[in-house]
Amino acid sequence: KAGFLSNIKNSLEGVNLRQNGIFLALVALVIFFAATTPNAASITPTNWSNLVVQNGYILVLAIGMVMVIIAGHIDLSVGSVAAFIGAVAGILVVRPLEQDGWEWLPALPWWAGLLGAVIVGAIVGVWQGFWVAYVGIPAFIVTLAGMLLFRGLALMTLQNSNIGPFPDEFRAIGNGFLDKENALGTAIGFPAGCNAMALVVTALGVVALIWQAINQRAGRVKYGQPVEPRIWYYVKNVALSIMVGYVGFQLSQANGIPFTLLLLIFLIVVYSIVMNKTTFGRHIYAIGGNLNAA
Predict the structure, then answer these.
(1) What are phi and psi of 258, to 5 degrees?
(2) Are 161 and 99 in contact (CB under 8 A)?
(3) How many Cα atoms occupy the beta-carbon half-sphere of 13 within 13 Å?
(4) CA 230 – CA 220 distance, rounded (Å)
(5) Which one of 38, 86, 182, 279 is separated from 224 by 20 to 30 angstroms, measured CA to CA?
(6) In angstroms, rounded to a whole number, what is the distance separating the alpha carbons of residues 38 and 188?
(7) Residues 267, 270, 272, CA angle at the centre, nearest 5°?
(8) pLDDT at 167
(9) pLDDT at 107
(10) Does the pLDDT of residue 214 top 80, yes or no?
């Protein structure tokens, strides 16, 4: 028994449990809820699709929050800022004729409304960043004030009323699907209940995931950095590829790949490039590691 435990310990030596703990916890949660929900409702194609569509915005916000947290700060205003920017986007895209004070504003094309909202969001970031980086006020205090400020601005912008209807292109960003009509599947003779485009995107995603893992390990070996044990490396990446493939297959049984997921993947790629390949990203890690030394 002691020899068996020793062999396991030796084979797992070098595994970063802090880095892989979230991955293992995710697997455990998926298994737990699949076993405890009636008829495994948590892993049905419709539920997978709903999870991505309804929670995609949280993952988008998390990408920005990761940068802030790595730098050693916190942002309490992220929810209020999201509400305010969403209100700005709505006002720019739909002219609110019934609201006093906005008569001068024409309805913009949906893409111009999104661009305007991004610009306003950047101004908000500059505003709060100025007080943290140049004045020296702790981010906790600045964003606590921002949480109240931008929540109030969101209510003022919408004037406590609903606006609409929104253009189809605008709504498709949050509720649309890639090739929902399954035109590709029909053209190549795929079964009607299986979205071929979703399977193609999933296959490309799995290939990209494997390539990134191989490339990352090769880079670490090249520069003499510690790497995970070979057994754990294969087990983890095979399991992750299976999970991605399974989710993609489930989405193909529903409406296909949501546009929200494609946007999220794009932002993750941009985040990875910024944090790993740019001077700005290195500065963020340096500041979070030791501000005084940096």
Answers:
(1) -70, 145
(2) yes
(3) 6
(4) 13
(5) 279
(6) 36
(7) 110
(8) 87
(9) 77
(10) yes
Q: Is 106 left (phi over 0), alpha (psi -120 to 50) or beta?
A: beta
C-alpha distances in Å from residue 89, one per residue of 47, 50, 82, 166: 28, 23, 10, 10
pLDDT above 90: residue 18: no
In the predicted model, what is the mean pLDDT of the chain?
A: 86
Structure tokens at 196: 């071929």
Residues contacting 163, CB < 8 A, separation 6+: 90, 91, 94, 96, 99
Range from 13-22, 195-204, 212-221, 256-265 carrying the lowest mean pLDDT: 13-22
Give the span between the Cα atoms of 65 and 113, in whole angstroms. Answer: 24
Phi, psi at 54, each rounded to 5°: -80, -25
User: What is the share, in percent, of the chain residues with pLDDT greater than 70?
Assistant: 89
In angstroms, the CA 270 to CA 276 distance is 10
Strands (DSSP E) contained in the chain are 177-178, 257-258
